[in-house]
Structures are given as structure tokens and as C-alpha cells.
Amino acid sequence: MSKFLALIKKEWILAGRQKAVFLSLLLFSTLVILLIYFGLEVLEVKPKGIVPPVIWLAIVFGGTLQLNRTYDFERDEDVLDGMRLIPDIATQFYLSKFAVNFLMLAIITVFSSFVASILFDYPLFTELRNIIPPLFLGLLGLTAVGTTFSTMVMVHHKRDILLPTIFYPLIAPLSIAVIKSMQPEYLDAASWFKILLVFDIIYVTASLLVFDKMMEG
Amino acid sequence: MKKKYIIGLAIISVAFLYLVWTSFKTSFQFALTPSEFISKQAEFADKSVKISGLVGRGSINANMTDYNFLLSDDLGRIHVHYKGIVPNTFREGAEVVATGRFNPANNIFEATELLTKCASKYEAKY
Amino acid sequence: MAKKFISIWTIVTAMLIAIDAYLIAFYAPIEINQGAAQKIFYWHVPSAMTMMTFYIIGGVASVVYLIKKNAKADALAVSFIEIGFLFCTIVLVTGPLWAKPVWGAWWTWEPRLTSTLFVWLVFFGYFMLRASLENKDHARLYGSVLAIFGCLHPPAGFKFALKPAGCNVADADCFYYNCAFTRRLIGLFKI
What we know:
The complex is a heterotrimer.
Chain A: H1 2-16, H2 19-39, H3 51-68, H4 79-85, H5 90-119, H6 124-152, H7 159-181, H8 189-216
Chain B: H1 2-26, E1 31-32, H2 34-39, E2 49-55, E3 61-63, E4 66-72, E5 77-83, E6 95-103, E7 108-116, E8 124-125
Parallel strand pairs in B: 1-2, 5-7
Antiparallel strand pairs in B: 2-4, 2-6, 3-4, 4-5, 6-7
Chain C: H1 2-27, E1 30-31, H2 41-68, H3 71-103, H4 111-132, H5 136-152, H6 155-161, H7 172-190
């Protein structure tokens, strides 16, 4: 546990040095929403149902940038090799990375929910009850898979292309589940929510299991 | 260490099996029969629903890609309107599932999607 | 020896494909509702079954690699996934070819079609990842992790989960009747 806290402290200090990056993540998500808005300009009346998918897209695109820089500080100076010398660190290390990514993505989520509801005239506060649980579970799954996958492409110089190609098809079913369960007027929303929950269980467990092996070498 | 893997694998397999099992269970749950829909009409006002029934004999009225027909079961029938290309197994007496919304103003079910259930068996044409 | 075996096997396979094509075209009857389009099932359905089997074996081999770090297990996983990918492509091509005359559209967001597309994309990414990692150990390790996620990426569960209430022509009960035709094909050889 103390190892985990130390790792979190490390992440916290490092994040503090990178406030500018954080701002550009938020800006990027806003730009995604703006672009979608202009893409949909032909629709004179924006149906309420398009806002949850727009929020989710902003999270996925903005989140990809964050996930890609998960190991920015470990890549150089062989930090990972040093990390491997510490016994039984893998799970804690994964969880610390997971926690940071989850927090960042959560901030992106809150921010882009506000931006999207302002631009699309969406009653965010009355819908909160419907969108928070699916978004939370969606973030959980997205972060679990994303953190594992960013480990794979960590040392690769084309990782910004590679990560989305291997990552997006995998989270496509998750995205469908999130978007469908955010819309209660859709009749299957409740069963999609259960499916989303099960996806999360599978992805988080599988990530924790494989990460040990990935750290070994 | 070993224990962790066994527990993890067990969780994954249970979750996976649950996924397969629920989806088997729920896959037919959401299609209503026409009579069910009529009796619960208020509940489904303004919601997208799936209705499955038989295409009434002699009820298809098609104009280019505009289709009007009656979807019926033993106890009730609904007037369905669908605009689009229909599958070529769509015919009178075929079992279809229509997805869409009911328009109470003119009592027509506006279908956005039409699927034909498969013929109960394949028949050879010699 | 192995090379000779492979070349003989290739010829045998090619001949079997030709016989199969002949039987599908001339021996199997034409289905009454769907017409000649139904005949594509003789390719489509077995390809889907092969794809599933090979992906599952590839996934299991990847798990074995991850535990044992045994290069043989990885070679097995790659070969099964490669063949699975090939059959996945066949499924994705024959599916729309069948759907156009029967459903009236090349592509519908039909659950099976959609999930097959996702699986195809996941394993496309698998080859991309393997090809672009220069360190062979990394390629094996990360490739097997991706394969495991790809196989968990519930192809089976998802397939049914998305299933619309109306069963489609490619559905289970229809499939058994399709089998009945296949049995007739097999019966031909017994005579």
C-alpha cells in the first residue's frame, strides 16, 4: 500500500509540472465537440439524443491523447528497468497509472459535458441521473484497456498512430454500450447498462492479470 | 500469486458466460406482439419499440418504396408505414419485426427498420 | 519433405474447392424464398465457424505464451490468428454479397456483421502491432496480450447481445436447415 501511495505521489508531482498539457487536452476535447457541431449543422433541430454520443466522442478522442502520454516520464532513462527491480510492484504500478488516467479522463468528461450541453442546448442537470452511471463505467473500461494498451506501444516511435488503431476497435462495443445506456428513451438501455458493467469487469480483471506478465519483460 | 490468476480467470469466465447467457435471454424480450402493444400503448408513447407479427393477408399497399401494411397477431392489428427497401422475403403472411414509433395522431406505426424473420425452414425449388 | 507435403496438400485443397463449387452450383437445390443468393451460405457459414474456432485456438495459445513465454506457443497463436483473419475476411465479403439481394442493402448494421467487423479490425491491429515492434520479444508479448483482449472482446457474447428481436435469416434455426442441405451434400459422397 505504501508503494502505491508513493507512486501516486510521484504521479501527482509530475502532473503538477505539466499544467499546459492538461489545458491542451481540454482545448482539444472542446474542438472535437465544435467540429461535430459544425458537421451536424444541416440538422436544424438537434435531437436531444445526439448529445451523449458527442460527449463520449470528445472523451474518447481527448482521452487517447492522455493515454498516449501515460509513460512519458518512464520512457527515458530506463525508469522501467529500475521499476522492475522492486518486487511485486506491477499491480501497484498499473493502478497508479490507472488512477492518474482515470482522473484526467474524468476531468475531460466533466468539462466536455458542460461544453456540449451549452453548444447543443442540452438539459445537462436534469439528465445527470441518466448519464453519470454509464459515463462512469465507460471511463472505467476505457481507462483500463487504454492504460494496458499504452504500455504496449510505449517504446514505439509511431505510438500516436498505433494506439488508436489497436485501441478503438476494442472499445467499439464498449462505446456502443455506453451510448445506448445513456439514453433511457431507448428501450434496451437497462440491458445495455448490464452489458457495460460486465465489459468493465472483464477488461479490468484481464488488465490486472496481464500487466504482471507485461512488466516481466 | 497462482491464486490471483485462478480468481481472475474465474471472474472473467463468469462474466463472459453471463454475457452470453443474458443476451440469449433478452434477445427476444423486447419485441412486442401487436395486441400487447395496443394494450400498453400509453406506456410506450414516444418510445422506440419493436413489434413482431405477421403481415396481414392482402394488406400490403406499396407505392415505390412506400409501404403500408397491417401487422397482426391473433388478437390485434396495427397499421404500419415504412419507407425504404424491404427484404425480398417480405411478403404477405411473413413474420416481420418492425422498429419504430407509434404516431397517435393518425394511428399509424412509423417503422424505421424492418426485418423479416427467417422462413421457418428452407424449401427447395426444383 | 514438408515442402512436398504442402504442395500436394495445396493441389488437393484446390481440387476440393473446385468440387465444392461444382456441387454448390449444380447439385444443391435453389432455395424457394431467397433464390440463388442462399447458395453463398455454403461458403459464408463454414467460414464463420472456421474463423471462430481458429480465433479461439489462437487466443488460448496466446494465454499459454503469456504464462510459459514459449516461442512455439506464440508461433501457433500467430498462425491460427492469420488463418482466422483470412476466414474473417471471407465472411465479411460474402455477407454483404448475400445481403444485397436478400435484404436489399449491401451493409446493414446487423449485429453479427457489426461484431465481425470489429473483430476483423482488432486483429488487423494485431498484425500492425506485431509488424511495427522491432523487438521480437515485445512483439510476441504485446501481440499475445492484444490477442487475448481481442478474443475476450466478447465476440460470442456480443454477437447475441446485439441481436435484434427478429431473428435473421442467418440465424440458428435457419442454420440447422442449412445443415440439412449440407448433409445432403455429404450424403452424395456416401453413395
